[in-house]
Amino acid sequence: MGGRNPVTWLGSPAFPKAAHEALANTQLRRNLRKATTTIRAKRAEVVSEMADWERLRRAGEAIKDDVLANLDTYLVRLEEAVTARGGVVHWARDAEEANQIVLDLIRAEGTDEVVKVKSMATAEIGLNEALQASGVNAIETDLAELIVQLGEDRPSHILVPAIHRNRAEIREIFSRRMTEKPASDEPKDLAEAARKYLRRKFLSAKVAISGANFAVADTGSIVVVESEGNGRMCLTLPETLITVMGIEKLVPTWQDLEVFLQLLPRSSTAERMNPYTSVWMGVTPGDGPQKFHLVLLDNGRTATLADKVGRQALRCIRCSACLNVCPVYERTGGHSYGSVYPGPIGAILAPQLVGDMHDKQAASLPYASSLCGACFEVCPVRINIPEVLTHLRAEAVEAKGKRTPEALAMAAAAWVFADPKRYEATQKAGSLSRFLARDGWIKRIPGPGAKWTDSRNAPAVPKESFRTWWRRNRVERS
Amino acid sequence: MSSAREEILSRIRAVDRPAGAPVVRDYERERSASDVLALLDERVADYKAIVHRVSEAEVPDRIAECLARRSAKTVVVPADAPDSWRVSGVEWKSDDPPLALSELDSVDGVVTGCAVAIAETGTIVLDSGAAQGRRIITLVPDYHLCVVRADQVVVSVPEALARLEATRPLTFISGPSATSDIELDRVEGVHGPRTLEVLIVG
Ligand code: SF4
């Protein structure tokens, strides 16, 4: 055990360099702007229907803080409840251990093909790649994950991993990889093509793999929230179900779900309720999988818990609202973050899960922000992302030493990303890469930033005026 | 195996974790609506499901109408569905003994009841209880006709969860299957039933 944590992708450049490349991709920026603008407006609308939204957010925050404060107690309680209902609970310290557990369980069923419902935990541990290396084919059944898988691509959004692709690109990928090609690039025809492609797989699969949105410690209930019905297919048809979940996904009681089943859909897909939510306890005789395995995953979570400021990232329910409002995410896209967790949550979660501020790429992530605060405002569990970013920046600087060129370069990057106008101007000023050091850090900023990198003396970041700028800009485009 | 368990638990226990603030449940645990059935009707229809308001006596005829409109000839029902639902002119397949997957995949639809419905979110909840059957029978057929009784309808999510039993497998259904994965635009109809039709009785 104890290999590299696959939460960040091997060989990804540090954020400033990756972002610079992404900024040059105008198609990507158009796709993202369109998608995030749509979802922001819809979210605002469904949230405004709820007079008690702020009280729900505070309750969500408090419930998750209670989970973190009593995590050992609740985990043991969950284990007892799941076991009592015929499930088997496994514990995994890291990605490698979790992947091995899942592989052994699949082998025990004598199959080499499994269907999967989208799960951040399994993406985080690189499960598909690990299974493939051992001859097991894991088929992603969520439409966006399928687009990523068939396009041999990386995910770029928590909820909609293929958000960087538009309909024409998706049609092209499907036409290349499916025997029955989509009739057109209308979303309805693309969905139909995916339905046909996956139908036989669902009906014949012996083993399914899922994540979990919530697990209720008291009852052992596992909750999966989804839209397409691919989740229900995976959770209902195969004989064996393997669920991998981070140890922080707990809620203490059944009643707590009343908070999260209101917060999550409105924050993520901007719907009053997502099309399907499945809840089950262990094994139900005669209904659904007759073998159920639950893998509880640490993979850097206990280390994150040990950080007093950083631990609030473990409240995250992966709704992706913070991505959709982030000015940096909107311009650079998800791939620049080099992790399955992009955007503001990725900038605070990925480096903590990696747990090594000497890792240049991970240490660059807390700088991928303008500190505008929009993410905190929308977060359904009130994670103060700007606070954690600032805290992690200090840690990154400490790991490197204050006056090293790297530390200064990181500060320079932060200055550039503190204002979308600034990094767009930097981009326009041309070839930012000329000023990049080989390790991806900015050595000298051309154009408007030159004065700063030359004098090595950071001007104050105009936080307030930036907020005003972003707000006005956001309203205009919504 | 147990060593990973012990190690994770001891890592957690090694951390100083002050108790958080108490959970204050001052959000609305109940909400009222002037016409809860009208609200349910509106919100279910919002997801592009087809909704009808019917009286108790009309149920069999409306089931027959709905099925005829789709030319549905072979239809699944849970074994304990009321006899009055099994109108003539349709070949009814009762899920007792359990139907094979291939059979479920070849029928024209399924008719069930539900456990609870949430008006505010337009959600129907199935709990495998009375007139609902196994989860699979409302998943594989492409058409689901669901009969909701007025006394099963609540306004909000907290009221629904209070009525449900955690021990049963639950499926919350809000409209037909859908995806927002292409340009974050919602399209109805992916893997679950592509058509959801609801009879609100009362
Ligand atoms: S940090 Fe908050 S807003 Fe971002 S994904 Fe997590 S819960 Fe959602």
State the end-to-end CA separation of chain B. Answer: 56 Å
Report the CATH C-level class of chain B.
Alpha Beta
Radius of gyration of chain B: 21 Å
Number of helices of chain B: 5
Query: What's the CATH architecture name of the largest domain in chain A?
Result: 3-Layer(aba) Sandwich
The tally of structural domains of chain B comes to 1
CATH homologous superfamily annotation of chain B = NagB/RpiA/CoA transferase-like
Shape, principal axes of CA atoms of chain A: globular
CATH topology category name of the largest domain in chain A: Rossmann fold
Major β-sheet strand ordering of chain A: 1-10-7-4-2-3
Low-confidence blocks of residues of chain A:
429-444, 446-470, 472-478
Q: What is the CATH-assigned architecture of chain B?
A: 3-Layer(aba) Sandwich
Description:
The complex is a heterodimer of chains A (478) and B (202). Chain A contains 23 helices and 10 strands. Chain A has 478 residues and is an alpha/beta fold. The longest helix of chain A is centred in the first third of the chain and has 23 residues, at 26-48. In chain A, the strands form 2 sheets. A 6-stranded parallel beta sheet of chain A has the order 1-10-7-4-2-3, sandwiched between helices. In chain A, strands 8-5-6-9 form a 4-stranded mixed beta sheet. By secondary structure, chain B is α/β, with parallel strands linked by helices. Helix content of chain B is 22%, strand content 26%. Chain B contains 5 helices and 12 strands. In chain B, the strands form 3 sheets. Chain B has a 6-stranded parallel beta sheet with strand order 1-12-7-4-2-3, with helices on both faces. Chain B has a 4-stranded mixed beta sheet with strand order 8-5-6-9. In chain B, strands 10-11 form a two-stranded antiparallel ribbon. Chain B starts with a helix and ends with a strand. The interface between A and B is large, with 92 and 72 residues. Iron/sulfur cluster (SF4) is lined by residues 267, 316-322, 345, 378-381, 383 of chain A.
